[in-house]
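Module 6 notes. Inverse folding takes a fixed backbone as the condition and produces residue identities as the prediction. Think of it as a translation problem where the source language is geometry and the target language is the twenty amino acids. Below is one complete input and output pair. Work through it position by position during the lab.
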């Protein structure tokens, strides 16, 4: 489900950057802050895999050595593409210049392509190994370790991102794993907070 967020957000943000008015620093800041957040999500997601998941699979699935090496190499490629985006983002955030916006949007599309290729192989080849070799408790621990790297205030945004295009079955599964206070908080205020957040980022009327 988090992969869906990554596949969706980078192309969408590239379109928002293309459509942002030249010199509008307020609009640039709204978009930039969101893009920075999604880049952080990818970085933390990959960090968890590098530090926790790959070592366990390497110890348990000897035939997966080449595959895990490719996963690590692809992570490096995604990081390098993300660094290019981050450098351009800092310039655009300061100036909202059209020339920088064009470069940034293109760099973001390149990142999306590199990341998409990685996610395709991970879903096709790694997840079956996870099902066979990683316990439910270990998978949950990976998620907890990743989430712990984010401030508490970010959790509403992350939850909203995941639920935005979730199927009915996905939502039932996801909510079933959330503690009752978290489910209640989402219904009471989280859903509305996320709606306001997306309207601001996407430039929609509030």
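Target side of the pair, the amino acids:
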């Amino acid at each position: 489900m988090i992969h869906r967020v990554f596949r969706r957000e980078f192309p969408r943000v590239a379109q928002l950057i293309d459509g942002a008015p030249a010199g509008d620093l307020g609009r640039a800041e709204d978009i930039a802050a969101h893009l920075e957040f999604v880049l952080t999500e990818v970085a933390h997601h990959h960090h968890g895999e590098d530090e926790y998941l790959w070592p366990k699979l390497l110890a348990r699935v000897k035939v997966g050595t080449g595959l895990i090496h490719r996963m690590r190499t692809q992570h490096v490629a995604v990081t390098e593409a993300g660094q290019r985006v981050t450098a351009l983002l800092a310039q655009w955030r300061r100036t909202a210049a059209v020339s920088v916006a064009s470069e940034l949007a293109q760099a973001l599309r390149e990142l999306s392509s590199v990341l998409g290729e990685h996610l395709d192989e991970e879903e096709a080849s790694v997840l079956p190994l996870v099902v066979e070799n990683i316990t439910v408790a270990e998978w949950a621990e990976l998620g907890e370790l990743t989430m712990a790297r984010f401030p508490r205030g970010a959790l509403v945004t992350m939850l909203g991102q995941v639920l935005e295009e979730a199927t009915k079955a996905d939502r039932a599964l996801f909510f079933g794993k959330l503690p009752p206070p978290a489910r209640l908080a989402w219904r009471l205020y989280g859903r509305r907070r996320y709606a306001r957040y997306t309207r601001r980022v996407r430039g929609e009327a509030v």
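Reference fact for the lab report: The CA atoms of residues 135 and 196 lie 38 Å apart.
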